[in-house]
Hints:
The protein is mainly alpha-helical and 249 residues long. It has helices spanning 5-34, 91-98, 106-109, 126-135, 146-149, 162-172, 187-192, 203-206, 209-215, 244-247, and strands at 49-50, 56-57, 81-82, 87-88, 153-154. Helix 2 runs antiparallel to helix 4. It is elongated. 18% of the residues are buried. The chain binds 2-acetamido-2-deoxy-beta-D-glucopyranose (2 copies). One 2-acetamido-2-deoxy-beta-D-glucopyranose binds at residues 47-48, 56-57, 73, 90. Belongs to the SPRING family. This is SREBP regulating gene protein. Residues 1-26 form the signal peptide.
Amino acid sequence: MFRHPRSIDLILLSLFFLQFSPPATAIRKDVSLKLKHYCKTTVQGRYNLTDDNGYVCDAFSIDPRSRCCPRRGDQFSCQGCNIGSQCCNSYEFCVSCCLNPEMTRIELALKVKIAKPVTAGIYGSIFDYCAGRCRHNSESVVHENAYLSEFHHCFSIQSNSSESSSAQLESTLAGINVIVGRQGESCDSACKSNGQSCVPNKLAVLNQCEVIKKYMSCKGACLSSVGADQPAEVVDDAPVHLSDRERED
Ligand SMILES: *[C@@H]1O[C@H](CO)[C@@H](O)[C@H](O)[C@H]1NC(C)=O
Ligand SMILES: *[C@@H]1O[C@H](CO)[C@@H](O)[C@H](O)[C@H]1NC(C)=O
């Protein structure tokens, strides 16, 4: 008798092929008709990922064939982003927000160098721009305070008009006396105790790093944040490690 264990393997293997090859060709026709677009996605983060249509989803809901997120929720969502500074507290929503043609002008984005050196290449697509830009940004100074550093996903195209804008700021604030209140003190109370009155519509003008740095110590860095109490400075005794859950309050 001739029985070699290897021949069994071969038989099993050919059975395997017989079983699986015919259905595969039947499916293929169908797929090539339906799928025009395979999505590019960000590398899976802690919770979510973003596809190049501008949708955010988790790894379980992504279409296994197309790699696209379901078209649920907002396209180009800016959840957790500060529109003014174009910085977000999550990488995924930074990419999604950045992909919005109204946020990022494609023709400018595709001229941006990937890195500083003159020889550095440029981004090949708006998705590559957003995925790269949100990950590293020279404006996002790494700071010892976790509360601030969570807003470090920024996608803005650097503007080179800072000098003219600082002159503009000065003129907007002409005649305004800037008073720094105590922690938790309202604008009304801080101004009243100095015999003046609060001008609420100028608070937004004050809420810019350039201005804030003039009046407050800003020991680490000045970064954008969101919330009702703006402008604001993080107090010295703020906890350094705030988890996501605590921050959502
Ligand atoms: C993940 O994405 C969903 C939307 O698809 C969003 O509601 C949720 O807040 C995101 N989770 C995190 C932790 O960003
Ligand atoms: C920066 O300035 C240069 C020349 O002054 C101009 O060509 C370029 O478009 C400007 N960049 C932005 C983002 O405005």
